[in-house]
Amino acid sequence: MAILLQDLSLTSKGILAFFALYIVYQIVRLSAQFYRHNSIIKKNGCKPVATYPHRDPIFGLDIFLENSKLTKTGGFWDRVRERYLALDCWTFSQLLLGTRVINTAEPENIKAMLATQFKDFELPPRRKEALQPIFGHGIFTTDGKEWEASRALLRPNFSRNQIADIETFEHHVSAMISWIPKDETTVDLQELFFMLTLDSATEFLFGKSTSVLEGDVTNEEGVKFGEAFNYATARMSLQTRLGKLAVILPDKKFKDSVNLIHEYVQNYVQKALHKKSLTLETPGEANSRRYVFLEELAKTGYSEKKIQDELLNILLAGRDTTAGLLSYLFHYLARRPDVFDKLRAEVVALGNDQPTFEDMKGMKYLQYCLNETLRMQPIVPSNFRFAIKDTTLPVGGGPDGKSPIFVKAGTQVNYQVYVMHRRKDLYGEDALEFKPERWENLRPSWHFLPFNGGPRICIGQQFALTEASYATIRILQAFKRIEPRDSSILTEAMTLTMAPRNGVKVGLIPA
Ligand code: HEM
Ligand SMILES: *[C@@H]1O[C@H](CO)[C@@H](O)[C@H](O)[C@H]1NC(C)=O
Ligand SMILES: *[C@@H]1O[C@H](CO)[C@@H](O)[C@H](O)[C@H]1NC(C)=O
C-alpha cells in the first residue's frame, strides 16, 4: 500500500513537471512568435486594420446568420457592399464562426495576393476540401507544384485557333435559337443559356456534346449528366460556405450525382485513350477532325484518372460562368432599349452571315457591353486566399487605411470584386449605372478583375468572350426587339458563381 502511494505521488510529480515544462514551452513559443510578428510589423510600418463592430464579438454570429438568410433571398453582395460603406473603408476584419478573416475591395491588396506576393498565398483548405471529392486533383483544386503542372499541361490547348471553332458554336447556338418562341411569348433565356454552355463545353472537352438543346430523347444520358452536374455544383457551393458543417448532412442524391458524373466522363476518357492507341497504328485518319480537348490530353500519356479530373475542373470553371454572363447581359438589354438598339446597329452592319473571329474582335460596342456587364455583375463576385506564412498586405491599415497591414499565417483573406467594381472613387459617381459607353475611355487594370489576374488568371477568357459574343450576335440578327416580362428586382442566385435569381424572362420580336 505504501509503495503504491509513493508511486502515485511520483506520478503526480511527473505530471506537474510535465505541465510546468509545457507552460514554459508555450511562453517561449508565444514570445518568439510575438517577437517575429512585431519585427514584420515594425519593418513594414503596419498599422491595425478596421474591425467590424459585431453584436456577437466572440463568434460573429450576427453576420453569419444575416448571411445565411441572404443566401436564401438574394441581395447578399449588396449587403456586403453596405458593410464596407458603413465602415467607410475598403479593408476590414470580421469574425467567421469565431475565426478572424480579412475582407478587402482594394486593387493594391488584390494585386499583392494574386501577383506580386503570389507565393505567400494559396487556396483556402475549405475550397479544396469541398471540391476535391468530385473534381479530384486538377487545375482548379490544387496549389503549388501540383497546380503548376496542371496549368502547364492545359494552357497550350487554350490558344486562339483551338477555341475559335466557329462551326461548333454555330451548331449549338442555332439549336438554342430554335427554342426561342417566334410569337413573342415569354421565354426564360437563362435556362437556354445554361443548356447552351453545357452542350458547347462538353463538345469542346469530350468531343461529344450532352446535346440537351437537341431535345433528343435518345440522349437521356446527356440530360441526366446535366442534371447531376447542376445538383452537385449547387451542393458544393453550400459546402464552401458552411465548411465541415455540410459534410455531416447526409445526402444520397449528392453521392449518386457524383457517381453518375464520374461514370459519364470516364466513358469518354476510355474511348479517347482507346482511339489513341488505334490511331497510332493507322496514322493520318484523324488529321482533318475538329479540335477535341480530351484527345489532345490523351496524347500526353497522363493517367485516365488525371485526365478525367482535369476535364471536370474545366467544365466546372467554364460552364456556369459563361451562362451567367449571357444571362446578365440580356437582363440589361431587355431593360435598356437605347443600349439594345445601339448594339443591334453594330450587329446589323455586318449583315446576316456568321460572324468571323475578326468580325467579333472589331465590334467595339459589343465589347463595351460585355465588359460593362462583367463590371456590374462579376460572375465570380468574391473569392478568397489563405496566407501560408506571416506576411503583409500593402494597404488597409491605420485610420486613413493607407498603411500596410499584418497578415498572420493561416489567415483567410476574402476579396470582393463585386464591391470593388462598384466603387465610386474608382469608376465615378455613376458607378452603379449600367453604362457601356464608359469603356470608351476606361483602361482597366487591377480595379477591373472579372477573370482574376496574375499566374492564376482564367485560362478560358477567350473561349467565354467568343462564345458570349457569338451567341449575342446571332440572337440580335434574328430578333429586332426584346421586352422584359418580369418586374421583380434583380437579385443573385448563389452557386459557386452567380446568376440572376429569377432567370431572364423576356419576349423577343423577330426581325
Ligand atoms: C464569363 C466567363 C468566365 C469568368 C467570369 C471566369 C472567371 C474566372 C475566375 C475569376 C477565375 C479565378 C478563380 C480562382 O483562382 O480562384 C477563373 C479561373 C479559371 N477559369 Fe474561368 N471564367 C470564365 C469562363 C471560363 C471558361 C469558358 C473556361 C474554360 C473553358 C474557364 C476556365 C478556367 C480555369 C481552368 C481556371 C483555373 C485557372 C487556374 O487556377 O490556374 N473559365 N475563371
Ligand atoms: C495540348 O496540350 C498537350 C499537353 O500539354 C500538348 O502535348 C498538345 O500538343 C497540345 N495540343 C495543341 C493542339 O495545342
Ligand atoms: C475589356 O476588359 C478587358 C479586361 O478583361 C480588357 O483587356 C479590354 O481592353 C476591355 N475592352 C474594352 C473595349 O475596353
Automatic annotation (TrEMBL):
Record: residues binding heme: 458
Names of the cofactor(s): heme
Keyword field: Heme, Iron, Metal-binding, Monooxygenase, Oxidoreductase
Keyword Iron attached: yes
Lineage: superkingdom: Eukaryota
One Pfam entry name: p450
GO MF annotation list: heme binding; iron ion binding; oxidoreductase activity, acting on paired donors, with incorporation or reduction of molecular oxygen, reduced flavin or flavoprotein as one donor, and incorporation of one atom of oxygen
Gene3D superfamilies documented for this protein: Cytochrome P450
UniProt record similarity statement: Belongs to the cytochrome P450 family.
Name used for this protein in its record: Putative cytochrome P450
Organism listed in the record: Hyaloscypha hepaticicola
Lineage: Eukaryota, Fungi, Dikarya, Ascomycota, Pezizomycotina
